[in-house]
Amino acid sequence: MGSKRRRIAAIGAGALGCGLIAGFAPFVRYQADRAADGYGASLTIEQVRPTWAGISLKGVDVRLRGAPSVAIRLDEIAVALGFSGRRVAMYGGTVSAVGPREAILHELETWRAGQPPGRAGAAPREGGGSTELEGLKVVWTDRADSPKESLSATGVYLSRAQGRTSISAHEAMLSLGRAAFSVREGRLVLVREQARYQVSELAAAAIDAEVALPEVEPEAQVAPERGGSTRPVQVKTAAEPGDGYRAGQDRGAAFREAIVRAARMIDLALGEGAKVEVAGVTARLKRKAEMLNLGPGSLAVRREAGSLVVELSPGEAAIATTGADAQQALNFRLRVPISDAKETPQEIVADVQGGPIWLSTLGVHEGDMGLFDVARTSIVSRARVVLSADGQTLGVDGEGRLKNLSLRSTALADEPIAGLDLAWRAKANGKLDGSKLVAEDAEIDLGALRLIARGEYEHAGASHRVRGSFEVPLSACQSMLDSVPKGVVAKLHGMRLAGSFGIEGKLRFDTANLDRTFALDWGISNTCRVTEMPPELSVDRFKRAFRRLVYGPRRQRVEIESGPGTAEWVPYEDISRFMEVAVLTTEDGGFHRHHGFDEEAIKNSIRENLRKRRFVRGASTVSMQLAKNLYLERTKSVARKLQETLLTMYLEQELTKEQIMELYLNVVEFGPLVYGIGAAARHYFNASAAQLSLGQALYIGSILPNPSVQHFNASGEVTPTWSGYLRKLMQIAHRRRRISDEELEKGLQETVVRGSPAPHLAPRPPTGDGSEAVDERPEEEQGGAWVAP
Fold first, then answer.
1. Please, how many CA atoms are within 13 Å of residue 540, restricted to the half-sphere of its CB?
2. Strand 179-193 vs strand 164-176: parallel, antiparallel, or unpaired?
3. Distance of alpha carbon 75 from alpha carbon 77, whole angstroms
């Protein structure tokens, strides 16, 4: 009887155990669903298993209500119960989301708002317990195909216990438009204070940022059309006052408000005594193929007297390693007010203080932005930038110096520039809407070469007003030349100067009425003279045959022979006098008055370029063009212009005007591989240089700015439009007393024909009254690359 009872008990116990086992998984799923529902989520669990310590859930999918774009997959959740409370550990898995950043954030906010009050981010119940998450991966992209913004994090670890949450990640990468950030071994500690979490500690082994700078939009190009005329492909109209302009007045206030709002959000997130320090911050600025590296440096964030202070010190660790005798840290410090208290200054202040420090210590690499020898280049800065309390005005006050700067830049020079010593100081302020800029004092020093400027700029609608002064203090010419890096004056090695140079000037204009307001005046003290010139640059070599490199039709370099005694050389006395008339009429009306530089032409050039708001007109003289043709390449750079200036001064010093004109007419380009007036007269008219008529000479002179474009029709005659232009030039030459009445009358009867030594004569066509000015060409024809209709 007893054994029977034991068998019945065993069977009952077994049945009960089977029942418990059979109902275990559904019970756990039910309880898990209830818990998840309290957090605004739903669960799908692939497998439930009991363990010695509690429960193991595997293959858990989590969906958040209101956030359909977010998917959470957890490999395993282990729940253990003990005397110290419940411990939840999650191992492995992925949190993924696809969708625009704003949409994802809106979904998460919707999910958070849908939870019961106090539930979102709730702390563990009193009595203990903890939550841990290990090995999680986080992935977000703004779209499934070819994303432009993304976030990924691996090795994510989270631990939460007793109101303290610690989050870390092995590596995290964030890409937002032009900016990308990566964090290695990041750690964030949050402490629950007054029903919300605040940052107690933020640290990382390394933070790297890469920012792609916006590219500068190219200016409108001038495209040739049939007949040789040109028109800009794109015309930019002047800005008119309107809603967009008025909106710009609020740009500064909005900019300041955004900075202050961000600072207050950071302050709100920081706990009392929070520690935010990162030792390995690096940054890269990119523009196309160019790059600038900075760092590693240290980053610190702290509160200070009602303000949030952010400090960045690149190269601090490197200085500590090499010693601080030769270098001092360069500190970037930003102070943003977070309190409205009267005792708290409301300006946003940025300081860049420190140095000397080598660029290599700052993290700049060889080749960055064309820089080289960065380990020998030092920088010093004492500068402050202040954004006013109303956000309308930005002020700059400071000074700095770059010593032994070396760089490669085709915009500056063809040769590498090494050993540049550049100092600057500035005190200026301006409206952030662009309406006003005042430079109280600005100076750039390049050794003995100093430029000082003061002035004011105002902008209102279509009007741009400028009033200012500039000065290059008197200094020895040789000292100025010695101050310029050798790469900038590479072709002038061995030139020696005597005398001194200085200039003072004033500029005033209003683009709304340039004809009445434009005023540019200067006074020059110039006694510079060339006392020594290397043999390869001496004008003596041009008194006999010499060889030089020119450009062919496909811009290939070709060596040709020039100079007295060569086949193509034409002495001055054997050139038709109309050829000089043509050059003086079309290229350089003040040739016999100036000493290489036409001050009036320079002023007119500046005024017209301001009027068109782009380069449409140059002020190059015959002497300047000769210097360029004899000595320099066709590249456009600061170095070429500076060397052209000094070589022009030398040619004017050593040669007579007749010698300059003779050289010019024998070396200048008149067409593809047509160099010199002898070749041009034969090429176009099958004539000698002495035989050229007024019309023929003016045609040859008129194509000098763009000799690759010709103006003959199918019969060989000059096109009617261009013929009309040549007649205008004749009228101008006559008005300037360069041709007689008889020469004008005969010229007006000419029809210029290609290949014909003698022009065809016909009755004089109707013309204007001769009041046309040479500057009244179509706008596309003026400047260094104009071509007439």
1. 6
2. antiparallel
3. 7
Q: Which residues contact 674 (CB under 8 A, 6 or more apart)?
A: 680, 683, 707
Torsion angles phi and psi, residue 166, rounded to 5: -120, 125
Helix, strand or coil, per DSSP, at residue 149: strand
The residues near 629 (Cβ < 8 Å, ≥ 6 apart) are 664, 667, 668, 669
Query: In angstroms, rounded to a whole number, what is the distance separating the alpha carbons of residues 613 and 600?
Result: 20
Average pLDDT for 750-761: 85
Q: Classify strands 85-98 and 130-141 as parallel, antiparallel or unpaired.
A: parallel
> How many degrees, rounded to 5, is the angle at CA 36 between CA 35 and CA 41?
160
Contacts for 603 with CB less than 8 Å, ≥ 6 apart: 518, 520
* pLDDT value of position 738: 94
Write out pLDDT tens, residues 579-613: 999 999 999 999 999 999 988 888 888 888 888 88
> Which helix (H) or strand (E) element contains residue 336?
strand 330-337
E strands present in 99-193: 130-141, 149-161, 164-176, 179-193
What average pLDDT is seen over the chain?
A: 83
The DSSP annotation for 735-774 comes to: HTTSS-HHHHHHHHTEE-BTT-SSPEE-SPPP---S---T
Output the pLDDT for position 504.
96
Residue 234 DSSP label = S
> Rounded to 10 degrees, what is the CA torsion of 132, 133, 135, 141?
-160
Look at residue 110 in the predicted model and tell me its pLDDT: 86
pTM of the model as a whole: 0.78
pLDDT above 60: residue 58: yes
Percent of the chain with pLDDT strictly greater than 90: 41
Question: Residue 123's pLDDT band (boundaries 50, 70, 90)?
Answer: very low
